[in-house]
């Protein structure tokens, strides 16, 4: 018997002491990777600022930054990682170009 998918890809909510569930940091990191793959296909931008919760930032850099570095090298984009404690762990924001246009929702799945 395995745990349900909800429990496999989520963790107890830190704000309500586990009554609810939120996406795990690993699941958010995978969601970000998929976002950048979609954005690279349709976007005219190749430089981004990624704003995430510090815990998600730690997953993306996993100590030495290899995961994020591998993604940026594969997609040929530049991503500046910004850790922001005010961002909810299950959310992220992406700004693009010199004008720092918020494009987070533009490449999210419908």
Q: What does this molecule look like?
A:
With 110 residues, the protein is of the alpha+beta class. 36% of the residues lie in helices and 23% in strands. The protein has four helices and six strands; from the N terminus they run H-E-E-H-E-H-H-E-E-E. The strands form two sheets. It has a four-stranded mixed beta sheet with strand order 4-3-5-6. It has a two-stranded antiparallel sheet with strand order 1-2. Helix 2 crosses helix 3.
Structure described in brief:
The protein is α+β, with helices and mostly antiparallel strands. It has helices at residues 5-8, 25-42, 54-61, 66-75, and strands at 10-12, 21-23, 47-52, 78-83, 92-96, 101-102. Helix 2 packs across helix 3 (54-61).
Beginning-to-end CA distance, first to last residue: 33 Å
Low-confidence stretches: none
Shape type: globular
Order of helices and strands: HEEHEHHEEE
Per DSSP, the total helix count is 4
Radius of gyration: 15 Å
- Class from secondary-structure proportions: alpha+beta
* Helix fraction bin: 25-40%
**Strand arrangement, major sheet:** 4-3-5-6
Mean pLDDT: 86
What's the count of strands? 6
Q: Give the DSSP E fraction (strand runs of 2 or more residues).
A: 15-25%
Q: Biggest sheet, in brief?
A: 4 strands, mixed
Which key features would you list for this structure?
single chain; 110 residues; alpha+beta; four-stranded mixed β-sheet; two-stranded antiparallel sheet; 4 helices
What is the strand and helix layout of this fold?
Blueprint (H helix, E strand, L loop, with lengths): L4 H4 L1 E3 L8 E3 L1 H18 L4 E6 L1 H8 L4 H10 L2 E6 L8 E5 L4 E2 L8
Parallel strand pairs: 3-4
Antiparallel strand pairs: 1-2, 3-5, 5-6
Helix pairs in contact: 2-3
């Amino acid at each position: 018997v395995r745990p349900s998918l909800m429990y496999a890809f989520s963790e107890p909510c830190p704000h309500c002491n586990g009554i609810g569930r939120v996406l795990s940091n690993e699941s958010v990191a995978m969601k970000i990777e998929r976002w950048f793959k979609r954005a690279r296909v349709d976007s005219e931008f190749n430089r981004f600022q990624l704003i995430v919760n510090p815990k998600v930032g730690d997953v993306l850099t996993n100590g030495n930054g290899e995961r994020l570095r591998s993604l940026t090298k594969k997609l040929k984009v530049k991503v500046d990682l910004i850790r922001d404690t005010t961002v909810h762990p299950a959310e992220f924001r992406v700004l693009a170009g010199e004008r720092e246009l918020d494009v987070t929702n533009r490449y999210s799945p419908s």
